[in-house]
């Protein structure tokens, strides 16, 4: 009879000793407080009292680094926040080497982010955000390697500037646009003057070309009767006509006197 009781105790002990480790987990097994092995996914026997197991999630995790106040290399105060993606590469180190790796990574990321931002100027931080993120990832990954953790990516989500600095950047951008507009206009004037010089040279080299161009212009203007056209005649031509008319009048006067 006692055999059945003993068998029942054994079966009960085996049943309560079964631990299920899911596919996305790894088990860190301890026996009498000492690390024994890493338990792979499946059903595993963990004998009560003598053994214990700590399950570690090896999936990629995202740590939201809260907003941090930092000062750039050129002494500008900015607010930055980021997100870190990491996964446990060695479950035994993640349990044995650090007490709470999730909290430790968050604190390490905050410190590293402030240090990296303090080593670059504002223009670099705004224009080369990916490069700054890669620097943070490299440092954090190196420091967390003894913990058995692999940092896969770090993304700077936002860079918050003071209001006065936003106005300064806006004025700088406006001045830069005006500079490009002036340069573009000047380049257009140079191109137009070059083309006009070529056109003038072509007209002057052909006989009657300038006269034909003048007549063509008058024809284009005459097609629109709603405009008043003022055609400028060189003063020398008027003086030449005036001189010619005086000579004709004098000849006519002499002829009349001779007839009388």
Mean pLDDT, nearest integer? 80
CATH topology of the domain at 61-161: Tetrahydropterin Synthase, Chain A
Major β-sheet profile: 3 strands, antiparallel
Structural class: alpha+beta
Task: Tally the helices.
Answer: 8
Give the N-to-C terminal Cα separation: 178 Å
Sequence of strands across the biggest β-sheet: 3-2-5
Strand content: 15-25%
Low-confidence stretches: none
The string of secondary-structure elements, in order, is HEEEEEEEHHHHEHHH
CATH class of the domain at 61-161: Alpha Beta
**What overall form do the CA principal axes indicate?**
rod-shaped
Q: Quickly give the CATH architecture of the domain at 61-161.
A: 2-Layer Sandwich
The CATH homology group name of the domain at 61-161: Band 7 domain
Radius of gyration: 46 Å
Number of strands: 8
Helical residues, percent: 55-70%
Please explain how this structure is put together:
Among the domains are: 56 residues, no CATH class; 101 residues, Band 7 domain (Tetrahydropterin Synthase, Chain A). The chain is rod-shaped, with a radius of gyration of 46 Å. It is an alpha+beta fold. The longest helix is centred in the last third of the chain and has 43 residues. 55% of the residues lie in helices and 24% in strands. It has 8 helices and 8 strands; from the N terminus they run αβββββββααααβααα. It has a 3-stranded antiparallel sheet with strand order 3-2-5. A 3-stranded antiparallel sheet has the order 6-7-8. It has a two-stranded antiparallel sheet with strand order 1-4. The mean pLDDT is 80.
């Amino acid at each position: 009879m006692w055999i059945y009781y003993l068998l029942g105790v054994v079966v009960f002990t085996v049943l309560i000793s079964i631990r299920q480790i899911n596919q996305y987990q790894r088990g860190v097994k301890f026996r009498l407080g000492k690390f024994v092995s890493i338990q792979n996914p499946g059903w595993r026997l963990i004998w009560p009292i003598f053994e214990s197991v700590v399950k570690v999630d090896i999936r990629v995790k995202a740590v939201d680094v809260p907003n941090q106040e930092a000062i750039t290399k050129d002494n500008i105060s900015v607010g930055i926040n980021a997100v870190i993606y990491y996964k446990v590469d060695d479950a035994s180190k993640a349990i044995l080497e650090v007490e709470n790796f999730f909290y430790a990574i968050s604190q390490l990321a905050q410190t590293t982010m402030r240090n990296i931002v303090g080593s670059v100027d504002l223009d670099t931080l705004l224009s080369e955000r990916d490069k700054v993120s890669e620097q943070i990832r490299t440092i954090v990954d190196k420091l967390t390697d003894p913990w058995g953790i692999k940092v896969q990516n770090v993304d700077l989500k936002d860079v918050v500037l003071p209001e006065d600095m936003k106005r300064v950047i806006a004025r700088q951008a406006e001045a830069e646009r005006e500079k490009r507009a002036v340069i573009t206009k000047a380049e257009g004037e140079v191109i137009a003057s070059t083309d006009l010089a070529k056109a003038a040279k072509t007209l002057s080299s052909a006989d009657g070309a300038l006269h034909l161009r003048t007549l063509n212009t008058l024809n284009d203007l005459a097609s629109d009767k709603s405009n008043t056209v003022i055609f400028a005649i060189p003063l020398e031509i008027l003086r030449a006509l005036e001189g010619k008319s005086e000579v004709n009048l004098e000849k006519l006067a002499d002829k009349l006197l001779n007839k009388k």
